[in-house]
Amino acid sequence: MRRAPARKPRASRARAMKTPSRVRRLTHVDPAGRSRMVDVSAKAATARVAVARAEIRMQPATLALVRANQVAKGDVLTLAQVAGVMAAKRTAELIPLCHPLPLTDVAVRVQPDERLPGVTVEAVARTVAQTGVEMEALVAAATAALTVYDMCKAADREMTIDRVRLVYKHGGRSGEFRRSGESGSWRP
Amino acid sequence: MRRAPARKPRASRARAMKTPSRVRRLTHVDPAGRSRMVDVSAKAATARVAVARAEIRMQPATLALVRANQVAKGDVLTLAQVAGVMAAKRTAELIPLCHPLPLTDVAVRVQPDERLPGVTVEAVARTVAQTGVEMEALVAAATAALTVYDMCKAADREMTIDRVRLVYKHGGRSGEFRRSGESGSWRP
Amino acid sequence: MRRAPARKPRASRARAMKTPSRVRRLTHVDPAGRSRMVDVSAKAATARVAVARAEIRMQPATLALVRANQVAKGDVLTLAQVAGVMAAKRTAELIPLCHPLPLTDVAVRVQPDERLPGVTVEAVARTVAQTGVEMEALVAAATAALTVYDMCKAADREMTIDRVRLVYKHGGRSGEFRRSGESGSWRP
Amino acid sequence: MRRAPARKPRASRARAMKTPSRVRRLTHVDPAGRSRMVDVSAKAATARVAVARAEIRMQPATLALVRANQVAKGDVLTLAQVAGVMAAKRTAELIPLCHPLPLTDVAVRVQPDERLPGVTVEAVARTVAQTGVEMEALVAAATAALTVYDMCKAADREMTIDRVRLVYKHGGRSGEFRRSGESGSWRP
Amino acid sequence: MRRAPARKPRASRARAMKTPSRVRRLTHVDPAGRSRMVDVSAKAATARVAVARAEIRMQPATLALVRANQVAKGDVLTLAQVAGVMAAKRTAELIPLCHPLPLTDVAVRVQPDERLPGVTVEAVARTVAQTGVEMEALVAAATAALTVYDMCKAADREMTIDRVRLVYKHGGRSGEFRRSGESGSWRP
Amino acid sequence: MRRAPARKPRASRARAMKTPSRVRRLTHVDPAGRSRMVDVSAKAATARVAVARAEIRMQPATLALVRANQVAKGDVLTLAQVAGVMAAKRTAELIPLCHPLPLTDVAVRVQPDERLPGVTVEAVARTVAQTGVEMEALVAAATAALTVYDMCKAADREMTIDRVRLVYKHGGRSGEFRRSGESGSWRP
Predict the structure, then answer these.
(1) How far is E173 from chain F (nearest CA, A)?
(2) Contact E82 A77 (CB under 8 A)
(3) Total domain count for chain A?
(4) pTM for this one?
């Protein structure tokens, strides 16, 4: 039986609560309440990595179609991967207050998962810059999932994209973040 | 207590099963198994509408920050709405096999929802064209949600984007789709 | 002697005042005060044209540089023209609530004007669509002017772009608009 | 009574005249008269900031509409601010010979000004790079102004965008520029 | 001495010579010698198709690498195909005087060819519009070829992209064009 | 029978064969055969330059038209140059696995060549980054050539773009590359 996108487990919540109060605010809002980009001019460029995940739930018959197609060229999963990589590079065009970043690496993995049933997405983004690449990883994961939706929608309009989330982040002042309850290991 | 992004209710599944078998295939794959755009040259341009929804789950304290900011100019919710509208217009650049479409309308509504707790997104897209605007509505909803994530992430890295889904579609050969279990009424 | 970007002459103001009251509102704002694209799905596609103008004021010595360069290939004025045409095609990416339109024509003319002293820009945009091309013409004119600024800025940082304005518009429900005090004739 | 976008005051002109003669040329033109990007490969990356301003003149009744809308979500001024920020990030796509830059900050402020009557725009751009961000600030200011035009044009077609200008610049070989007659202080 | 990519065979030349003299001019140049978009406002929207081809020549060992990779997911050839399709949709952004078109179909086929040795590309583009899709097909073919270059360049820097050419075109006033010496049949 | 764009001369082949075997693989493919960006996070940013060339063959009468137009403003060759420069800046959007790079210089030269007969293109790209700019130079050269095609196509549909190739590269771990049989000298 499928488990629902679970609430964050207790441990994770506890840690989040311990986040120093100074960051418990909206950094994209200036003292006058006006939204703005965060000024990172004075920060040093350091190596950054972020990993995001997402999943697309679908009917078992739809997943069977994806699997059957998988042996062919230009299959659903490959196109979703390419779309994710390319979207990561355009994050700053899509997310209004994101900084444009010289990405040094993007990799997206899309694979079938019978337990959902559906498809899971994992996206890794890296840079050496003054700010992090969380949004790049999340945009890659979401776009890969949307591409799967596009290619399967004639067969199954009720697919759902779920649990688009950051699972790992390293680098920068806020240090390392590791979402609890997620498997996998990433090198900084 | 929050209910999880539920499995599609039985009625909905049943209907989906009745989908004529001819569409139970991947339309973006040619006989040789190669992915390709669907050729819509011979289809008539007709009025189309699609409605998509998404939600971002967050800690209650994060939602409180969003609500507090809401009275200010350029708040989180407004920026998410703008980002959604602008992303819809670039759907064909993001989703590899999507047709470029002359959108005649895009509207995105982003609002706080204490029950999640978090924020809900609804995006409506319209065109008069040879193919539908499901992807435009879904891209708008997902991008609006990602923008909320971006603007709140310093306060809460564990937010999750869930239930990105098509809830309504009208126009074109496949007729009307109305996802069961969704409230709201849309004019064709 | 140069005359400053003048206030609109009295006659023009008078006419504007007679604009029927039903359009004296912000069409991009819904009843709840939320900004949105204008839904043009139900409108017929008709031929539209719009003409916009702008000017860049500069020191006489800067204009002399532009003129001297004019005989060369890839001169300032030509690059400004190309930039204006290309920007017009991307109007819907830049202006949040603009509809994407299949432009059928864009032409930009950039020429020196000793009386400013400086450079004048005129941009014409055409389409056959459900909505007008005023913004396309204005974006073309403004971008052409910005390109002149870019190419001359090492010589003159105090240049000013002025009087970016719509001078003519034809087609659509609101009919013809002809800004008073502007010379030139355009065919609908 | 409002004075028109004035000629640059005498003092400013005088200073500009003192600009060393070596920069009194078109840097984007090669010895053969062919336009080209300026090669900045050998320059060091240093902190840069630029501030640009613009204004949109409109009828008093139009400004009243903008003000009335201002209390709502997604109002004209907020959308103009977002559009300005997003356009700054795409400057190198619009201005043919601009270098692509990793912007570290963009902020745009759009506010009503009864004296014009109309709306004023101020845009700040920052980077740490081999070349300056004047064009990014100017593109942001111009696009914010164009967005105001778009959202108010059904009420007032005769609005004019005026005085798009650089008011401050710091960083790089050419040092600091401060346009005379402009109020405001910016930190390098 | 270098041998050139062969002149077009005699038959083809002969036909081209018969092209009516009225089109023997540069349509993108106005009477004043200024480049401009062709105004297609008054033309009827009709079905259009264009087919372009290109080839990438490489060392036999490089082609062997491509072939070996071909059985894997996300191989060189698939990525080149996706890149070609996506580039076709952005033709009007790349080619200054191209009209933006609502493409109804794009398909790209990339396959190894031992005789070159190398890889051949074929791109088909369709629309229902006032102007043709030759440039869309050519941009798709060229970008697919460039993508092959990118993915193989660490192994072979001396690859060459050759014979990027239009092989078929149908629709519009100028009727059908079929390049002589090319195999293949396309439906209008 | 068609004669092919000639094989690379023997000397060039010989050198290529000496390329160390470790680079004789597809760097964009991971151990699982999945395509991916090359991770350059750990590489130092160094100065890079790349030079690419291309040629467009056309009928003598077409070249005469290009030459006649050359004296006018906004001529074919100038537009092709601008298009090449602008396309170079968008390489990472077009080529799926290319890194986005802060280009420090792009220059494109397009000139008539009676011997082809046709037009030759040379594009130079520079950056200070963790990876090279070969693709930027190639994209610039190819797009400039495609722009010539676009502007002359009404006069000559049988033009061919040939020999799009890298002729020089400097910087980075793989050192200098100089294609044999090419004239010209470039400074690193």
Answers:
(1) 11
(2) no
(3) 1
(4) 0.89
